[in-house]
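Consider the tokenized backbone below.
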């Protein structure tokens, strides 16, 4: 897969946005909402998963594609949940990047299955 470094860059950006959200750099009031702690913990684990998928996609592309498809679906779900239910957007750019990564990965996975 030629674009594995592009996907790694997208995942780095998405993970960084989630990281900044969790620690309140970009959205400082995220820590002050009542009952919001569980959501912040989930976003933190999604952030860790984003960064954990990068070495896998670089070293083992076939395994990395499957792992990052799962991670991308979770990222998109987290972003949509944060936008709808908490009225805090995790940046539309993040959603665009997560969906771009998901579409690239699904297309790559589909092409690799089609060859055999």
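A designed sequence for it:
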């Amino acid at each position: 897969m030629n674009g594995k470094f592009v996907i790694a860059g997208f995942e780095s950006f998405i993970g960084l946005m989630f990281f900044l959200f969790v620690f309140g750099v970009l959205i400082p009031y995220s820590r002050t909402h009542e009952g919001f702690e569980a959501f912040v913990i989930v976003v933190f684990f999604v952030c860790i998963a984003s960064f954990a998928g990068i070495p896998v996609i670089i070293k083992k592309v076939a395994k990395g594609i499957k792992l990052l498809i799962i991670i991308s679906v979770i990222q998109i779900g987290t972003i949509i949940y944060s936008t709808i239910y908490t009225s805090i957007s995790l940046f539309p750019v993040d959603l665009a990047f997560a969906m771009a990564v998901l579409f690239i990965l699904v297309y790559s996975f589909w092409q690799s299955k089609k060859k055999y």
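The helical segments are 4-22, 37-59, 61-85, 92-115.
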